[in-house]
Amino acid sequence: MILILSDMPDGTIGFEAIGQVTADDYRDVIAPALERRLPDLPLRLLFLLDDRFESYAPGAVIQDIKLWLEHLGDWTKVAVVTDHDWITNSVLDLSRLGSGKIRTFPPAELDAAKSWLVRDED
Questions:
Q1: Cβ atoms within 10 Å of 58's Cβ, excluding its own
Q2: What is the DSSP string of the chain?
Q3: Pairing state of beta strands 101-105 and 75-82?
Q4: How do residues 19-41 score in pLDDT, each as one tens digit?
Q5: What tens digit of pLDDT does each residue of 51-109 get?
Q6: Could you tell me the CA-to-CA distances from 105 to 11, 14, 109 in Å, in that order?
Q7: Backbone phi, then psi, for 94, in 5-degree steps?
């Protein structure tokens, strides 16, 4: 399941993954939220995958890659907040595919991730 985070800084959007993330989560939650922001605003996105996150369904992985590639030029900054090593490594691999800046943060640094998203430097 994906939830939209309500306590995000202006100009950003945040999502939290809980349990298993499915392709439907991308279709029903993430894609519509991003489309509401495009084309007027650059995408500054936070994705929280802490200890409540369990897994990605195979279809969700495909949707994640598809979404990343469809919006390749739209990403200004992406903060992935997680302590899952495999996600951190995947994020580093994906960062090589696109423009914009992407960075991982441990869950204890959630506020730092939000601050980083709104800074113009970095």
A1: 10
A2: -EEEESSPPTT-EEEEE-EEE-HHHIIIIIHHHHHHHTTTS-EEEEEEE-TTEEEE-HHHHHHHHHHHHHTTTTEEEEEEEE--HHHHHHHHHHHTTSSSEEEEE-GGGHHHHHHHHH-S--
A3: parallel
A4: 999 999 999 999 898 888 766 77
A5: 999 998 989 988 888 887 777 777 789 999 999 998 888 888 777 765 558 899 999 99
A6: 19, 14, 6
A7: -65, -30
Q: How far is the C-alpha of 91 from the C-alpha of 98, rounded, in Å?
A: 11
10 Å CB burial of residue 119 (0-12, 13-18, 19+) is: exposed
CB atoms within 10 A of CB 72: 11
Q: Which domains does the chain have, with CATH numbers?
A: 2-118 (3.30.750)
